[in-house]
Amino acid sequence: MISRIVLASNNRGKLAELRAMFAPLGIELVPQSELGIPEADEPFRTFVENALAKARHASQASGLPAIADDAGLCVEAFGGLPGVDTAFYATQFGYEKGDANNVRALLEQLQGHADRRAALVSTLVAVRAPQDPEPLIAAGRVAGEIAREPVGDNGFGFDPVMFIPEFGKTFAQLPVEVKNANSHRGKAARQMLALIRERWL
Fold first, then answer.
1. Does residue 88 have a known ligand-binding role?
2. Is residue 180 annotated as involved in ligand binding?
3. Domain CATH for 180
4. Following DSSP, what letter does each residue of 100-122 receive, concatenated?
5. Containing structural domain, residue 168
6. According to the annotation, is 9 in a ligand binding site?
7. How far apart are CA 130 and CA 113, in angstroms?
8. pLDDT for 19-37, tens place per residue?
9. Averaged pLDDT, groups of 10, the chain, 201 residues long
10. How many domains, the chain?
11. Which residue numbers are catalytic?
């Protein structure tokens, strides 16, 4: 019976979100930093490959099952980029790394583009062991449009410019519980919980 899973992330926001979702399974999520595990390299160009690399790395170092998330923004006008480079997007344009600069750079790069469609994507991968031949893979996606300017104070990352047509608001304007229920990470996590129940428990 699995009672502990290492979370291959040091992001406190992700940890809090996923811990709450995993609580009903009676599984404790342990951040890799608590076990002294350094961050894994992420050399790949797809979310699924990077998440798998992170999960395998954490499992190898801990001897426990592990779960990892790789997420980002995919903009139609840029052929799906920034994708796996989302966290460092602003640095490509001479800005320091950070959420506000990422938003600023994105709005500058989209000037003159009529197509403002974009999607936030989250891919979760879980492995029982480093060599697990059947990793569990769950993906969540939320499609919307990039707003002309940031609106709202909730959330982080690109939430202030990610306009969701079905709500008529940006992610940063939604109450946290509504955002989490409808976010890319929320969708991926619900799929992952179902897979763990079905395959591992």
1. no
2. no
3. 3.90.950.10
4. HHHHHHHHHHHTT-S--EEEEEE
5. 4-199
6. yes
7. 44
8. 888 888 899 999 999 999 9
9. 91 82 89 96 96 98 97 97 95 96 97 97 97 98 97 91 97 90 91 95 90
10. 1
11. 70
